[in-house]
Design goal:
Two copies of one chain form a homodimer.
Chain A: E1 8-15, H1 19-29, E2 33-40, E3 45-51, E4 56-62, H2 67-75, E5 78-86, H3 89-96, E6 105-106, E7 112-120, E8 123-129
Parallel strand pairs in A: 1-4, 5-8
Antiparallel strand pairs in A: 1-5, 2-3, 3-4, 6-7, 7-8
Chain lengths: 136, 136
């Protein structure tokens, strides 16, 4: 049961072939602002965030092997995942996917993150923490 | 140019085959709250909204001919559109799709709405007003 585990929509992750071309649409055509470009080589993606005013879109360009490249090959450009904010990834996994052995990784902007097993209504479900991870 | 036209992410629209089955996942598994079930026969959809805490998901089940049924037939269940809030649909269309002849319709929850032409990175782009429409 996930009651009270999810604190809100963190971002919608959209896989694109070319980050610059996609950015042109979101910034120049739609007039939105972009920030925090970064590469996550272990995940095979280059990331960039688009702010809508309320709600964030994460654009992902594959730069190596991984789920984003697989998605692009199978579906073309499109929405790959929805990410929810949680307070604590291990606690959320214990409630939402107990015993599934889901790997926790360092996601965008220094936040711990994980993906729940499977796809649901076409989307992978990511969880991420609200604040950058500070090892104790 | 869309500068300052878009006021935020209104909802992510996900087409599902069976609203009750989808609802079970969002409410019972993820612990989120749902509200405002309604039918829009002219658009061929039954709608329901899921609140994430910050950000809204609109679930759409096809109940007649229209884009949602077409999407389901072509792609299966999945994210069909992203909807942005605007202050005024005609003004936003004049800025974002001048001369495109985009139809304005009465969308969910009594708001005026429209879809911009085409798909962008796999998603249709909907615009809707923040408040229910009050004809003057």
């Amino acid at each position: 049961m996930g009651g009270a585990m999810l604190l809100g929509l963190n971002h919608l992750g959209i896989v694109v072939r070319d980050l610059e071309a996609a950015l042109s649409y979101y910034v120049e055509t739609l007039g939105l602002a972009a920030h925090d470009r970064e590469d996550l080589p272990a995940a095979g993606v280059r990331l960039l965030y688009v702010e809508t005013g309320s709600g964030t879109i994460q654009l992902l360009q594959p730069i190596g092997p991984g789920p984003a490249r697989d998605y692009l090959g199978q579906h073309g450009e499109g929405p790959d995942h929805i990410c929810y904010t949680v307070a604590d990834i291990p606690a959320a996994l214990a409630a939402l996917a107990p015993g599934a052995g889901v790997p926790i990784f360092m996601g965008g902007r220094g936040r711990r993150a994980c993906f729940l097993p499977g796809r649901h209504h076409g989307l992978r479900i990511e969880l991420t923490e609200a604040e950058p991870f500070q090892p104790r």
